[in-house]
Amino acid sequence: MLASGRGSNLLALLDAIDADPDFGGQVVVVGSDRPQAGALQHATDRGIATLLVEPPDHPDRAAWEQALIDGLRPHDVEVVVLAGFMRILSTAFVDTWPDRILNTHPSLLPAFPGGHAVRDTLEHGVKVSGVTVHLVDDGVDTGAIIAQRAVDVLDGDDEQTLHARIQDVEHVLYPQVVRLLCHHRIERRGHHVHVHPPAKEPS
Ligand code: GRF
After folding, report:
1. Which residues are CB-contacts of 70 (< 8 A; sequence separation ≥ 6)?
2. CA distance 183 to 96
3. Of 28, 45, 27, 32, whose CA–CA distance to 5 is shortest?
4. CA–CA dist 47, 91 (Å, integer)
5. Which of 1, 4, 9, when mutated, tests ligand 1's pocket best, judged by the most ligand atoms within 8 Å of its CB?
6. Strand partners, 47
7. FRET pair for 40, CA 20 to 30 Å: which of 1, 48, 59, 156?
8. Eight-class DSSP state of 174
């Protein structure tokens, strides 16, 4: 997982993995661009490897990104789960794990992409927002959509209250989608995603 922030999605994912012996994957490393990211501390507390790759330590974005790729590779990463990772990834990164990089975004994309989705939602005055889980491409929140859930915007909501309700939904939906990817049930066809039914148990 890559995260720049609090790491609540990491905790939700770890809980989901713990609760399901057939989840199909484990968190092998948590990476960040920010030393103060809560996700790094959560990982350390649970004995999960961490990777810190700070942009100022590298001459340019390409070098930073290459360092991130090089840092992840030894962990045999098969799926990259982004949660509040505040960096845009280029084709070099995206093509290293094709159709195996996920992001969760706190709006119903394509409405309100970018780093201030909840604020933008409230400023616009829309009545329904939500969560989008999508594959990552090299754009800003433009990858093929896998799943979405709606969350009502309530009178009197501020950024904190709306984001908290969106996160309650996100913490359920995101692990479900990660599980689908671990079970190879997600297939991208152009900009559309098909979710395959579960494989039949041999009788
Ligand atoms: C999530 O709400 C995600 O949708 C957004 O950033 C937030 C990260 O939260 N992109 P956390 O660090 O997992 O608590």
Report:
1. none
2. 19
3. 32
4. 31
5. 9
6. none
7. 59
8. H
Q: What are phi and psi of 104, to 5 degrees?
A: -115, 140
For residues 114 and 97, give the distance between their C-alpha atoms in angstroms, rounded to a whole number.
Answer: 22
Ligand 1 centroid, distance to 75 Cα (angstroms):
23
In contact, 46 and 75? CB cutoff 8 Å: no
Q: What is the pLDDT of residues 107-137, one digit of tens each?
A: 999 999 999 999 999 999 999 999 999 999 9
pLDDT digits (tens, 9 = 90+) for 2-52: 999 999 999 999 999 999 999 999 999 999 999 999 999 999 999 999 999
Q: Which atom of ligand 1 is nearest to the CA of 131?
A: 4
Closest atom, ligand 1, to C-alpha of 38:
12
Q: How far, CA to CA in Å, does 139 sit from each of 4, 17, 105, 177?
A: 18, 29, 13, 21
Average pLDDT in the 93-102 region?
97
DSSP 3-state assignment of 180? Answer: helix
* Catalytic status, residue 75: no
